[in-house]
Amino acid sequence: MINRELIRIKVVQLSYAYYQNGSKNIDTAEKELMFSLSKAYDMYNYLLALIVGITREARRHVEVAEARAKREGTALPSTKFIYNRFALQLEQNKMLNDFMESQKKSWDDQPEFLKKIYLQIADSEIYKEYMDSADDDYQTDRELWRKLYRTLIQDNADLDALLEEQSLYWNDDKEVVDTFVLKTIKRFDEKNSASQELLPEYDSEEDKDYARKLFRATILNGEEYQHYMSEASRNWDFSRLAYMDIVIMQIAIAEMMTFPSIPISVTINEYVELAKLYSTPRSAGYINGMLDAIAHHLVETGRLMKQMRK
């Protein structure tokens, strides 16, 4: 699940923090990086478990409505939503249950939030269309939750605030993690029952190594990379730059120099996008031009054995 987009974000955050604090212990900083990445995987599981938590909250509402209907002799409420096949499969999922048990976490600790979001769902057009539809199959049930997630969970200020309270590491992760939750919903297959596999923490050891190598190259070769920046622009005044700009370019150069298989254009594009998130309004355009000049300079001087796109 932890991909290079998320790794780059974390390396930017942790590299900036490394230079801002006074300890300068790279081993400790690397452990912090890997821990921060693991917390993103925690969020992935926690957000999947939210679907289970909402379903259980719905059951409580249906039970109350059933008791009232029996007392008053009125029609019983529909149980279609609480018997949604996808949600039941997720509730029984072995990987998710094992993970949540190991973390000692549960959405049962957030009853007010569960009630609020369930009522928002029950009041939504998506829910009403689902409840009124004659379609009654697994694909329809799974699609309901994909729509609900995209509409009411992906952009939810109350949820964002709650997650921030749960972990400081989750401040900037949710947008990326949401894409993996939606991918997981789409991948679920009824025939897999409780054995349906969730996304692994890392797709491969290579991605975990990428995180460590990128961070270490950034810090250990920082002076050398800043020298490359100066060489590419003789009249460049570091003091006039946002410090984050320097950090982002330093990481980009580390990626260019350390990973032969990653095209220069990919590296530049990725860090220009990060500059839009983490630096000044003008930084993205400036960094784009500077990284292009630096890459050309390194290729021309034989220090970077990659090809530049013409």
Could you list some keywords that capture this structure?
70% helix; elongated; mainly alpha; 310 residues; 14 helices
Verbal overview:
The structure is a single chain. The protein has 310 residues and is an all-alpha fold. The chain contains 14 helices and no strands. The chain is elongated.
Write the layout of secondary structure elements.
Blueprint: H1 4-20, H2 26-72, H3 85-91, H4 94-103, H5 111-122, H6 125-132, H7 138-153, H8 157-166, H9 174-187, H10 205-220, H11 222-232, H12 243-258, H13 264-278, H14 283-300
Distance between the termini: 34 Å
Structural class: mainly alpha
Biggest sheet architecture:
none
Helix content: over 70%
User: Any low-confidence stretches, pLDDT <50, length ≥5?
Assistant: none
Order of helices and strands: HHHHHHHHHHHHHH
Percent strand: under 5%
What shape does the CA trace take? elongated
Number of helices: 14
The tally of strands reads 0
Instruction: Give the radius of gyration.
Output: 24 Å
Mean pLDDT, to the nearest integer, reads: 94
Concise overview:
The protein is mostly helical. It is 70% helix and 0% strand. The longest helix has 47 residues.
